[in-house]
Design brief:
Elements (H helix, E strand, L loop, with lengths): L6 E6 L5 E7 L2 E8 L12 H23 L8 E7 L3 H18 L3 E5 H7 L17 E6 L4 E8 L2 E7 L5 H11 L6 H9 L22 H17 L3 H32 L3 E5 L6 H14 L2 E3 L10 H13 L18
Parallel strand pairs: 1-4, 4-5, 6-9, 9-10
Antiparallel strand pairs: 1-2, 2-3, 6-7, 7-8
Helix pairs in contact: 1-2, 3-9, 4-5, 4-6, 4-7, 5-7, 6-7, 7-8
Family: Belongs to the KAE1 / TsaD family.
Enzyme class: transferase
Pfam families: TsaD
Amino acid sequence: MEKKDIIILGIESSCDDTSAAVVRNGVLLSNVTASQAVHEAYGGVVPELASRAHQQNVVPVVDQALKRAGVAKEELSAVAFTRGPGLMGSLLVGVSFAKGFARALDIPMIEVNHLQGHVLAHFIKEDEGDRDQPEFPFLCLLVSGGNSQIILVKAYNDMEVLGQTIDDAAGEAIDKCSKVMGLGYPGGPIIDRLARQGNPQAYSFAKPHIGGYDYSFSGLKTSFLYSLRDWMKEDPDFVEHHKEDLAASLEHTIVDILMKKLRQAAKDTGIRQVAVAGGVSANNGLRNAFREHADRYGWRIFIPKFSYTTDNAAMIAITGHFKYQDKDFCTIDMPAYSRVTLK
């Protein structure tokens, strides 16, 4: 008897990107994302505007994902969706759509933890011959606007958070410092671009002193704010005159904080397979630091493609693929959740 293909539709709507992807037998066929530019004017994501945009985008995005994959909806094995964490209004659009779609097709539903999806983005295959995936166990540095965590990944469904931020996340600190400098939102790509032209040793900012593998970025943010205030008393145009050096020094400080704890975790666990995931993993300074650590410490590193660093449905679909194989389905009464960490 011929083995039936496992075809998973993934839906991601945790923040301001509406995304749908199709995976067949673990190989990505399509990954379609509609982003929302409306939030730039407000310096951050406006939840009500985000959920309205998801309502407009979800049907066309799913339609395009199926068409590009060359898959009819009747061929789908299951629908995987982001259940949380994220913005509740945004999540509800994706969750509600997934429930209605799965019920109409009479196929199983698979709920996915958004953070687990980011980690498992490393297992997205673009073709059958793609073998560049980490082996279990590995360490993953998950860094985004809402999370900064060091995760011990023992299996696709067995992850232990070794350390995490006790206040702000790395991405949040970058966005807020960019806003203070008047550079705009989102701050990550702006700081990254400017930092390539600046001196990372030009300025020094406060670094936290907390035990274990936990992170803290609120002190750095305060130090940056107060330093900027003092410098602008002397020169009101200080930011304009020194924005490249400020960006490079800020990025260098954040990357240094992130890598110091990760180095310690790798040393203590003896694990040399180290991955990075989440929105901040698109940052070139962090990517370069990973490459330097690979050379210096003999790490085998895994850095995702830029398209898999931000919120995307490909990571939800591949997680759904793994869960489908274990028949790990959920019931239709499963609610969305806004806050949770990895177990």
